[in-house]
Design brief:
Shape: globular
Largest sheet: 7 strands, mixed
CATH architecture of the largest domain: 3-Layer(aba) Sandwich
Radius of gyration: 18 Å
Helix content: 25-40%
Number of strands: 11
Number of domains: 2
């Protein structure tokens, strides 16, 4: 079976080179603000969905919580497993498929780690699975980019030089997706990757949350949890409560 783009790209070492600026300070700032807002109990069990190499999971665990991280990428999980301890675990897992039932108090899906599947059915399936993994009245935090702002400010092409590699990046909106093509040459070999993320807006999420058993409690526009403005906000961050599935 042919791998999906996210399975190839997120497992590539070049993904982490290109996005190295996603530093721990930014992740910790966001987590601090979320925890101050959500006030999880010290015995809360937290699920980090599409955890990557685990930067959010590790910091949440340092704050005293029992954390489980899941990700599709074998290489990402292998990297994250070096940080495991009694209250921190990582597993290779697809968010669309069942993973624990009525177990977690909070679930986090951060930094646009959603919107990668081909169909709305797959996205709703993922949300239903998350719903089932949460205890009664459990909370989901889903952090997405602000599609409205990104669509209006797409750059046709840019070049980023990182670690001696020139990454040629072009972006466009096509077929309801924001598509980013990434090409570069390294050690006399040409590479080409792409990112395809659904151009989801508030109303899309509202419908999917309703169909998967979530109620939107609040939504915010940045990592400081300021109000959302579709013209200016960088993020679209949802706080949802499990209602029924």
């Amino acid at each position: 079976m042919t791998k999906k783009w996210f399975q190839n790209w997120f497992s590539s070492p070049y993904y982490h080179i290109l996005y190295h600026q996603r530093n721990d300070d930014e992740a910790e700032y966001f987590i601090d603000n979320l925890c101050a807002y959500l006030k999880p109990g010290i015995n809360s069990k937290l699920l980090d969905i599409a955890c990557g190499r685990g930067r959010h999971s590790v910091y949440l665990n340092k704050k005293g919580y029992d954390v489980t991280g899941i990700d599709l990428s074998i290489s990402n999980i292998r990297f994250a497993q070096q940080f495991e301890r009694e209250s921190l675990h990582f597993y290779v897992h697809d968010m669309r498929f069942r993973f624990y039932i009525n177990y977690f108090d909070f679930a986090f899906n951060l930094f646009t780690s959603f919107g990668h599947f081909d169909t709305e059915r797959d996205h709703i399936s993922a949300l239903k699975t998350i719903n089932r993994s949460l205890k009664k009245d459990g909370i989901l935090v889903l952090d997405y980019f602000n599609t409205e702002k990104i669509s209006r400010n797409l750059s046709a092409q840019e070049v980023k030089n990182i670690d001696g590699i020139d990454f040629y990046i072009s972006k466009k909106v096509s077929d309801g997706k924001i598509i980013k093509n990434i090409s570069f040459e390294h050690k006399n070999k040409d590479y080409a990757f792409k990112e395809e993320v659904r151009a989801l807006v508030y109303s899309d999420f509202e419908k999917m949350f309703r169909r998967s058993g979530f109620t939107i409690l609040h939504h915010f526009g940045d990592f400081a949890l300021n109000p959302f403005d579709e013209n200016r906000s960088d993020r679209l961050i949802f706080i949802c409560r499990k209602s029924d599935a």
